[in-house]
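Z., the sequence and structure:
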Amino acid sequence: FSKAMDQADIDRIVKDFGQAARRAQQGGLDGIEIYAAGGHLIDSFWSRRTNQRTDSYGGSLENRVRFTLEILDEVRRQVGPDFCVGMRILGKGVHTSTSPGGVLPVGEEEDLTHEECLEIASIISKTGTVDFFNVNAGLIDTDNRLASTIPSMWGPLAPQLEMAGVFKREFGLPVMHACRIIDLSTARRAIQEGLVDLVGMTRAHMADPYIVEKLMSGEEERIRPCVGAGYCLDRLYVGHEALCLHNPATGREYAGMPHLIKNAKMTPSELGESQNENVESALIKKKAVVVGGGPAGMEAARVLALRGHQTMLFEAGKELGGQIRLAQRASWRRDLSNIADWLAQEVDLLGVECHLNRHATAEDILAEEPDIVVIATGGIPDDLGFEGPNVLSTWDVLSKQAPVGEKVLIYDGIGETQAPSCAEELSKLGALVELVTPDRQVAAGLGALNWPIFLRHLYKMKVTLTPNTQLRDVSPIGEDEGCKVTLWNEYSETTEERLVDTVVIEHGTIPCDELFEQLRPLSSNNGVVDVEGLLSSTAPTFPAGGSSSFLLYRVGDAVSSRNIHAAIYDSLRLCKDL
């Protein structure tokens, strides 16, 4: 736990801010932004809830802002008047009780209202010590509030933009803003309507670092979209590196993962001398066949086409997208469709020959006389060996291909989005749902931007949450009478039983690898990946030739159960060197 700062602490920290600003200046930066939002140190002094001091730093609003002004004075003393100094400032603290995730505890008054934050900004702006404001709303003192302060795909685009616009109208300072502005049309509106002077698009640039370049070259429609999945920050808040759900190159540039892959058809001037981090297009043009049009298959086709290979893709279904098309059916997860749509668009623009509604056989593939074959046939739901008319998968639920009873037990063996999504959907339809997991909490595999949203919805829908519990048996009671479910808690070493109409099992997928195994003995590499070469980005050696001499690989769920990111990463790191 922290302690109340005494005067020596305050004096020391004020000087630390000034020294940090000076180091930034000496390091060659043009400016700094001082963070005073989200419930961190500076704005904690502003809050009546966290600042209960009785000295000159507590009580009145002027006293609560005193620490801030001392910091700004010290920063200016250290860097001088010409160095750019801005402040990220709260536009509103705790959300109102009508905002998602903003219900206040009983007896707790709303703190740091919009009006109070405007008054604080007025006090700061009058000192002349700051050159701009960067305005955000919300606090992060609980997981639920964090998920609302940094909204993911469950919320609307640019939810705080109008609030930031008030600060621009009120004060004569430039205003920046960043909160779920994920596309150029939203950013363009923010600037054109005079709401802000500068837009921050952090997560959007993680999805596609070439946003500006594509805009300037007239290729705005080819920008890889941020879908607001929150995968990046979910990882960050549990101590991992921030990675994009569908751009596996982001954060892996050091490992040679390319954002752009040069096509040999480009001229030297089009390639540019500054793009030395990009993978050169394959010098030897080959014929590549990809089987499976999910995210792994589409990424494989995209990269192989960019490498300059003649690429063909077979998909058994009527559209490209794979399991993403199921996941997007869960109401607030619908923006996942943008991942599949972008990959399908790129595959089309790159001239990949796509065959839909085509269940490719080994004979079909061999008839093409390919040099490269990538199997991305996905998997089928793992039902753990429990079968019967009362046992369904999350695929069955989201696709609405099977009837579901009124009383449902969902068993989640992986802790990702699938089972909670099904619990939400079935609860909306009026089912009485229990969500059981062997993990110590529901949605254990999700991070801070997603599991609070699921829990928020599940609790409101009265879904029963049962952690630390394994599924041991499912036995039919009788015809059309449901089934008996046996559960086991390994900590209490006790068995429980449930009588339900339907059991939904989510335990990942089992690879559909029959086609891969059929082709394996006919390939030159026996379907084996050179792991050392994969890690060192070494291109494989192509066979001498012949109709049955081809390199064979598999990616995505055809290897083992994957999420979207892992499936796409499989294909990028393999195909970038083929």
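The chain has a mean pLDDT of 92. The longest strand covers residues 84-92.

Let me know what you think.
H.
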